[in-house]
Amino acid sequence: MPYTQRTLSSELERGLVAQSQATGLVGEEEARDSTPTTLLFRFLAEVSVTFLLNEVIAEANEEDQELHNQEREDVHPDDDEILQNALQKEALALVRYLLRQYNSCQPVTDVDMLSRITGGYRPHFPVILDKACICMQLLFGIDVKEVDTLFHTHVLVIAAGITYDGVLSHVQGMPKTGLLIIVLCIIFTEGGCATEEAIWQVLDKMEVYPDSEHVIFGIPRKLLMDDFVYEQYLEYHQVPGSDPIAYEFRWGPRAYAETTQRKVLEHWAKYSGIDPSSIPTL
């Protein structure tokens, strides 16, 4: 392995071991037994499992969320575990609202978001908003950016400079940029090209299977081949001299035109504990 790639792997491993332990996602032994590529996406997989409950999709296009809020009990739990579960549910409700606003190209304000949180949990608004933003960024590839510090107005934009979200203009679907960024990350951490097998091995840990319907991504293999390759974010080639025949993915010309390795890495580095400036390849 080239020096720069080895350095990258060690940086990723150190940061993600620390992140996994700090968040309680994995224990020390489990973290250190994992490969750097697995560690890189362990946090993403945990976010997927934690946030992506079926209600995120089932209620993504609901009518105003206030009706849902009125049906929930306004309680003040003292137990920390109960509180954390309640805050996650509040974050899910906020994610549904943010997805509707993104689909309608509408900005949001803190006042708007606060009004959709059950009264008893409004003092926890910063924590709820942080959880919702992580979900939007890592699963859907959508950044929640504050553009007005006076009125605390936010806009919802595609992350990492990418201009494609995989949502048909006439259908209120789910943004697919999150998966695209994950695949670009896999390719980067594999040294600029990743075999088809390596891609699916990592996505398997997020319960994203090539030919199984996914609530956000549809049929993942079709999304990669018919969308990401067609849109020139990915290139798909036969591995030279492979026997049996194998195929690999590389960054496509549109990916290079719209984003950079640093931007893609920074997208998840905010949550992984890695400092992109410390990676020589960048």
Describe the structure.
This is Melanoma-associated antigen 6-like. The protein has 282 residues and is mostly helical. Among the domains are: 36-50 and 80-158, Arc Repressor Mutant, subunit A (Orthogonal Bundle); 176-273, MAGE homology domain, winged helix WH2 motif (Arc Repressor Mutant, subunit A). It is built from 13 helices and six strands. The strands form two sheets. The protein has a three-stranded antiparallel sheet with strand order 1-3-2. It has a three-stranded antiparallel sheet with strand order 4-6-5. A hairpin with a 4-residue loop joins strand 2 (142-148) and strand 3 (153-158).
Give the SSE layout.
Elements: H1 3-23, H2 28-33, H3 36-51, H4 54-58, H5 66-71, H6 80-103, E1 108-109, H7 110-114, H8 125-140, E2 142-148, E3 153-158, H9 177-189, E4 193-195, H10 196-204, H11 220-228, E5 234-238, E6 247-251, H12 253-258, H13 261-272
Antiparallel strand pairs: 1-3, 2-3, 4-6, 5-6
InterPro entries: MAGE, MAGE_WH1, MAGE_WH2, MHD_dom
Protein name: Melanoma-associated antigen 6-like
Pfam family, one: MAGE
Condensed summary:
By secondary structure, the protein is mainly α.
Largest sheet: 3 strands, antiparallel
Beta-strand residue fraction: 5-15%
Low-confidence sequence ranges: 1-37, 53-60
Quote the average pLDDT: 77
User: How would you describe the shape?
Assistant: elongated
Organism: Dipodomys ordii (Ord's kangaroo rat)
Protein name: Melanoma-associated antigen 6-like
Pfam families: MAGE (PF01454)
Domain MAGE: 87-282
